[in-house]
Amino acid sequence: ELVMHLLNETETTITATAKRLRSMGFVVSEPGSFSLRHMLINDTAYAMLAPAECRQLHAETAAYLESDAPEWTPPTETLAWHHQEAGHLEQATVFWLEACRSAARRLAHREAIVFAQNGLKLMAGGQIDAPKRELDLQLYLATALAAINGYGAANVGEAYVRARRLNEVLGDGRANVRVLVGQWIHSWVGG
Which of 83, 107, 150, 188 could cross-link 91 (Cys pair, CB 3.0–4.6 Å)? Predict the structure, then answer.
């Protein structure tokens, strides 16, 4: 369905092309879906696209996935990645934050760290001015890092320091409690 939308082709054409690619050994398919047989084939196909074409395909994919068209709900990290690759940095950071929240709720700390870092990396360029979003990402990052590395780890302290600086501007009372308690535990455990 997504491929038909992106390529503006009929189901018959897509099925015939997928069958031909499968017979050549490039594609592995299951009913209703297919994928390239190996990551090197995937990487080569991706590298053959012009950067502008890549961004356009990512933008169209993100728009399609956000619409009512798909029969399934895509993970927020998928939406974040497509928006990021399309150059929609504002939307990407919103979805990275939501992906981070979702990972934190599932206690998937390593995922939460990656998602928070992805969002923060996009914000580091100065193109996005969303201090509350950055504060939330820093707090999720600090909490997940503490769960993996322990509260005494240097990167936990760094995340709380950045969160505190952001919150000095924002003045969010709840965030302030989280920041101060986190910094206190970091100092106490870290010595």
Answer: 83
